[in-house]
Design brief:
Blueprint lengths: L1 E7 L4 E6 L2 H9 L13 E3 L48 H17 L2 E4 L2 H9 L8 E3 L3 H9 L19
Parallel strand pairs: 4-5
Antiparallel strand pairs: 1-2, 1-3
Length: 169
């Protein structure tokens, strides 16, 4: 199994697991690789430090070293022990922003019902009391979104790449 550090054309860092270098190249050539942050298919492999599985008396998995640029997989997404949010006096590094965005996307996906292209119709039904009030997400055209807002129905466009709509690893 090869674990590769990848970046999209917008410089979002993420990790990919492949059976081999040929598997990575095949998926890249067929356009199957996509940035989990923005959905870009402009993906490239970046230099990364090797992962060495050495025998150790310490418990737990061996540490994975980040690349020299500080954008290795350890920075690509939230971990179970994510650091606390930064204080307002400190600005976030790009990796921290990416991790926060992924946490937010996971929260949205976990706590909303996907009504797909029926979003505008279902939002109106909920607003007028014709359907059960619940958090929903789906697709709406710009025209439908503007109409919903003009009708006093609070909506928030939130572009989620396809990868965020599946189980994120």
């Amino acid at each position: 199994m090869k674990v590769l550090d990848l970046h999209c054309e917008h410089d979002h860092a993420f990790e990919g697991w492949f059976a081999s270098e040929d598997d990575f190249q095949d998926q890249l050539a067929r356009g199957l690789l996509e940035c989990p942050m923005c959905g870009s298919r402009g993906v490239r492999k970046v230099l990364s430090a090797p992962r060495l599985n050495l025998r150790s008396t310490a418990s737990g998995p061996p540490a994975r070293h980040a690349s020299s640029a500080g954008t290795g997989p350890a920075d690509a997404g939230p971990s179970p022990a994510s650091p606390p949010p930064p204080s307002p006096s400190r600005s976030l590094a790009p990796q921290e922003l990416q991790a926060a965005w992924l946490r937010m996307a996971r929260q949205v996906m976990a706590h909303t019902e996907d009504v797909g292209p029926r979003f505008a119709e279902e939002a109106r039904r909920i607003h007028h009391g014709e359907a059960e009030e619940r958090p929903i997400r789906g697709q709406a055209s710009v025209k439908d979104t503007v109409q919903l807002l003009e009708e006093g129905i609070a909506v928030l466009p939130l572009p989620l790449p396809a990868a965020a709509k599946e189980t994120l690893q």
